[in-house]
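User: Reviewer 2 asked us to show a designed sequence for the structure in our supplementary figure. I'm pasting the structure tokens here. Could you produce the per-position amino acids so we can include them in the response letter?
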């Protein structure tokens, strides 16, 4: 309840007992608003709802019924105004606050720090009336209807997730092509922060779907669904598809080796996402590409073409200063695109490095030297280069005496400068 109009105030009074309604009208709308403003966020709790954690509870003496001595001390005017029924139900604190001479004109005093919680300033019947009227306003009703509609959709998707997981885990027959129709919804909601239970169910369903053996006739349908989601505007959905595609390809490696066209579609998806505007998607695509190269999913011919393509993207120059009379915003936009393309090339070359964690093939030293030349490029390129060399050192340091025989003296000197930390006393 953030705002109460005069009409809503009258509706609230009409739902009260005559004696309480008269008292509320005497105090006025502004006094009621001032009391409501004491609630957290200006919202009164639902009747019977336990106060939230951290709310100061009233002391026990406030919660007990007024004694006979307390009732005798109440002024006659207040006894006449409240009536015997309300006097028996009112707490001592409420009687003290509602005393006619407690403030100017007999009005309730303005609450001060240290006073009792606002729940004690509003009788339960008044709280119920305010809550009922606030729910019946057109705006609140529309919001409640939309929220319930949304929650209904959430529950339906959770049911679908559990159905997919149950079907794939408890049955021996192969996956049906119809299940890939829900792939987009699963990817869009697998990282939902608003609905953590839904996110968990979507993750489980994606995991079950990615580890299924897909028949050859269903392989094209699955890749079509993956391609569709990979073009989504949500970068989290793209990341989810890269995770899905990585497991899906390794699970169905034999099927993809027999279907070269479908394998080419997978490579196209990954190489397209390695140029995505979002850095998280580019880095994830680079890791997936490295895994595909490592397990020989990509043929040597295709790998050679990709290597030449990444080298070409890395070699493109980035303008440092705009030309004379060149628009500054246009220059910055072109520079950002050039940095993005070079970073995608660096990620592609990094995938070739990370695909060889236990040896140094003939093409690897040249790639390492090419990456070393971009250690001082604009970010995020240097960070990627440093991570690659750190990973290269970690995976090759055990047999470094053998590996360094495959490098020239100049290459070895460059790598030593990059991999060995400078001495503090040098």
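Assistant: Here is a per-position design you can include in the supplement:
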């Amino acid at each position: 309840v953030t705002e109460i109009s005069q009409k809503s105030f009258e509706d609230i009074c009409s739902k009260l007992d005559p004696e309480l309604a008269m008292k509320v009208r005497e105090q006025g709308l502004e006094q009621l608003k001032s009391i409501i403003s004491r609630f957290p966020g200006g919202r009164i709790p639902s009747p019977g709802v336990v106060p939230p954690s951290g709310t100061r509870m009233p002391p026990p003496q406030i919660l007990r019924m007024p004694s006979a001595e307390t009732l005798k001390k109440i002024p006659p005017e207040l006894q006449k105004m409240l009536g015997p029924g309300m006097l028996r139900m009112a707490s001592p604190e409420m009687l003290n606050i509602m005393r006619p001479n407690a403030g100017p004109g007999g009005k309730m005093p303005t609450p001060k720090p240290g006073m009792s919680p606002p729940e004690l300033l509003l009788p339960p019947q008044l709280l119920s009336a305010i809550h009922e009227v606030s729910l019946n306003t057109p705006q609140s009703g529309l919001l409640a209807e939309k929220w319930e509609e949304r929650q209904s959709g959430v529950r339906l998707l959770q049911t679908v997730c559990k159905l997919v997981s149950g079907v794939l885990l408890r049955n021996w027959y192969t996956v049906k092509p119809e299940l890939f129709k829900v792939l987009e919804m699963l990817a869009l909601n697998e990282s939902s922060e608003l609905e953590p239970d839904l996110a968990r169910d979507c993750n489980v369903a994606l995991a079950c779907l990615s580890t299924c053996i897909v028949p050859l006739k269903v392989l094209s349908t699955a890749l079509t669904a993956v391609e569709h989601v990979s073009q989504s505007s949500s970068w989290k959905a793209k990341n989810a598809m890269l995770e899905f595609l990585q497991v899906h390809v390794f699970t169905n490696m034999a099927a993809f080796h027999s279907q070269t066209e479908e394998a080419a579609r997978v490579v196209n998806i990954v190489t397209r996402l390695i140029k995505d505007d979002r850095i998280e998607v580019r880095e994830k695509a680079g890791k997936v590409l490295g895994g595909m190269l490592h397990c020989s999913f990509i043929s040597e011919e295709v790998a050679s073409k990709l290597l030449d393509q990444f080298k070409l993207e890395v070699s493109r120059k980035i303008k440092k200063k705009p030309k004379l009379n060149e628009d500054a915003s246009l220059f910055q936009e072109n520079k950002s695109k050039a940095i993005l393309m070079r970073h995608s090339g660096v990620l592609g070359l990094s995938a070739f490095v990370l695909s060889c964690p236990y040896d140094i093939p003939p093409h690897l030293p040249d790639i390492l030297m090419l990456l070393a030349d971009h250690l001082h490029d604009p970010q995020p390129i240097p960070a990627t280069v440093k991570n690659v060399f750190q990973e290269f050192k970690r995976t090759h340091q055990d047999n470094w005496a053998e590996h360094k025989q495959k490098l020239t003296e100049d290459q070895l000197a460059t790598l030593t400068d990059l991999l060995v930390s400078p001495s503090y006393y040098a």
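For the response letter, you might also mention the following. The two ends are 69 Å apart (CA to CA). The mean pLDDT is 81.
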